[in-house]
Design a protein that fits this description.
- By secondary structure, this protein is an alpha+beta fold.
- Helix content is 35%, strand content 18%.
- It is built from 13 helices and 10 strands.
- The strands form 2 sheets. The protein has a 7-stranded mixed sheet with strand order 1-2-3-7-4-6-5, with helices on one face.
- Strand 2 and strand 3 form a beta hairpin.
- Helix 1 packs across helix 4.
- The radius of gyration is 23 Å and the shape is globular.
- The N and C termini lie far apart (59 Å).
- The mean pLDDT is 91.
Length: 370
């Protein structure tokens, strides 16, 4: 067995009956091992589960191949040297009572699955091999380009996706947040040859190294058993030389154009609802994960009690719904900046009195600040 470094145990709440261990393999991979509390009967505890997060996302892709990170997320599922079947992991997981998925964000790509406890070892081996030796075959590219484009076409009907596209237009052109990161047939086929796309895909995969990877496995087995499985399955993950980049100093003037904070944008919606969206760019909140200050502000705004901004706006027949949120995945959740968004569904009266709503909201903010 490869040498394993036991790191400082995570802090947990007093009521948490699970057991945790954080380890680091020789190749640089870090893994959080979780032993489930065996007396728990909750549905989500019935299956074992695993995830792998890689510190590589759309910010790392070349501008000329929009959606390459998302495309690679799809391609690693399409067979590997040990398990060549293109839908191997999906078929195995689904036949053992589980499901799998993945997502690409600005700086991370996350893969995850759950499965019946007795099938965890083989599933984990199939999972690890996706990252150790993916085939990335040219033959699979066309099918996955179609899949990526299908997701893109579905997203076009989403009001949230349309707002994100506007936000990207307001980012300075040299910043990766302005790049088209979803991918479609235009960027992955029409504007690039198959040979060049395959070469870019293989080159981008080289960023998938152990030093930027984090595994989490939850099982009813002992921590020693889980550790042995993780070491056995992931020890061959390429070590590489990629290191986590230091967080840049925050300056929103370096990220967004002046239009972001100088103009109001009017968008014709695809549904009949009228809404007001206010977005703030803030320092990255990842660094405050232990105290979550923005969550406190959101709690104050979302409080429906008497005297709160939400109730005042409803009492004046200006709004139907009012909620504040923080982008938790995808665009706007990274080490460079954070987007906090206020979503307000308007009444007919509210749509005619936008300035009154803005005055009330910013007066409320000033009161909080004071």
């Amino acid at each position: 067995m490869s040498q394993v470094e036991i790191l400082e145990s995570p802090i947990k709440s007093e009521g948490d009956k699970k057991q945790y261990r954080l380890i680091k393999l020789q190749n640089g991979l870090k893994a959080l091992l979780i032993k489930s509390h065996t007396e728990e009967n909750q549905t989500e505890e019935s299956n074992a589960a695993a995830s792998l997060t890689i510190g590589v996302g759309s910010f790392d892709e070349p501008k000329e191949v929009g959606g390459l990170a998302h495309f690679l997320e799809h391609m690693v599922f399409m067979g590997n040297k040990k398990y060549s079947a293109e839908s191997g992991l999906n078929d195995f997981v689904s036949s053992h009572g589980g499901k799998r998925n993945a997502m690409t964000s600005d700086e991370f790509t996350i893969y995850f699955f759950d499965i019946q406890e007795n099938a965890l070892s083989e599933a984990l081996d199939r999972f690890a091999q996706m990252f150790i030796s993916p085939l990335l075959s040219k033959g699979a590219m066309q099918r996955e380009r179609e899949s990526v484009d299908s997701e893109y076409q579905m997203a076009l009907s989403s009001e949230g996706a349309r707002i994100v596209s506007i936000m990207k237009m307001l980012v300075k052109e040299d910043h990766p947040a302005s790049f088209f990161d979803f991918g479609n047939l235009k960027t992955l086929k029409d504007e690039i040859s198959d040979d060049d796309l395959h070469a870019a895909l293989v080159e981008f995969y080289k960023k998938y190294v152990a030093s930027k990877s984090y595994v989490c496995v939850q099982s009813r087995r002992s921590l020693e058993e889980i550790q042995a499985m993780v070491v056995e399955k992931f020890a061959e993950l390429p070590t590489g030389s990629e290191e986590v980049k230091p967080a840049p100093s925050f300056n929103f003037h370096n990220i967004f154009k002046s239009d972001f904070y100088e103009k109001i944008y009017f968008v014709r919606p695809k549904n009949p609802k009228k809404a007001l969206v206010i977005t703030w760019i803030l320092p990255p909140q990842i660094q405050f994960s232990d105290c979550k200050p923005l969550n406190h502000v959101m709690g104050i705004f979302d409080n429906p009690g008497s005297g709160g901004i939400a109730s005042v706006l409803k009492e004046r027949n200006l709004t139907l719904d009012f909620q504040m949120n923080q982008e938790q995945e995808g665009f706007g959740y990274n080490h460079e900046f954070c987007l906090a968004r206020l979503l307000i569904e308007l009444t007919e009266n509210g749509a005619e009195n936008i300035e009154m709503i803005l005055e009330l909201i910013f007066s409320y903010l000033l009161m909080i600040q004071q």
